[in-house]
Amino acid sequence: MVTLSLLVFSYILGSIPFGFLTGHLVKGIDIRNFGSGNIGATNVFRVLGKKWGVLVFILDFLKGLLPVLVVRSIGGFAPYVFVGVAVAVICGHNWTCFLRFKGGKGVATSVGVVLGLSFAFPALFIALFTAIITWVVFFYGLRYVSVASLACAFTFFLTAILLRLPAAIKVFAFVVFMLIVLRHKKNISNLLAKKENRF
To answer: pLDDT tens-digit profile of 72-84?
Structure first.
């Protein structure tokens, strides 16, 4: 029951659409009707401005971090429980129950989740650091947030596979990579058609 409660809590927390709420509170708009139509930090940055985009990124990051830290603070859980909670909060963000199961792309929330997991599995800090460096290099080199996010997710997965980590954490790294790819299908199509917008 404790594990089930944690999974439900994580999904609901992940489902809080901070980008959508910020659009309504700041300008009285539905952020889904502007820019890329996404509720994530990048679209909020484009539509509402830098400070609101940064705020949404931080909030989405924190909602990924919190559930994993809660599991760690309770203690005594196997790695697969950490993974279940981590995936639940990301899925909550990607398919929020508050917006008819349509949400963001999960990048900021995934980073928060991975940081939380790194405190429980310290070797994961190496994968996180490598992934962040990859994101920075690709973003500043190409100015495509989507390419940077995809490269970041792949690097995280590849690095995690090479590290001494529990099998459940390595599976999680693969799941994160696949979720990022899935949520960026439209961006991938735009990139292939040379229609993707640079940041």
So the answer is: 999 889 999 999 9
